[in-house]
Write a structure and sequence with these properties.
155 residues
Length: 155
Amino acid sequence: MKSNLYVLLHSVSSVRIVIEFTRIALGFDVKNLIISKAEGSAAMTGVPTAQRAAYKKGANNLFYFKDLTDVIELINPDSMFFIVPSKYTKDIFDAKKVKNILDKNSKVLLAFNGHKSSFPKREMDLGEPISLDLPSYIGPLGSLAIILNDLVVKH
């Protein structure tokens, strides 16, 4: 996977979501994985477990930031896509569009919310909200797997 792709899990409180999200990202050879605004057991157990898994895989770029503003300030992405339920946007994920941006060596950040709900509007306004072309939202784990499959395997 290209080194200018950054995958973000934001606002998560579940250890299982952190671990499974990390497993999926590493399975697709994501080089830059970010976790921000982890709370409770996700912060205390999930993040260290994710760091251990990333280190064992040889992927040393697992970042842990306090909040989304830190992610934007420090990563400084050229394009930022928020993966949200379709009721929040009419824009559908387009793997070719993202791939074209990556091919120009621009930094792309794909942001997934760690809860079943979506990002607050003020956060979505910082980037481009997009959804998968599915009957209903399947959460961050399924969405990540579909998107990375489209980016890595199909293109």
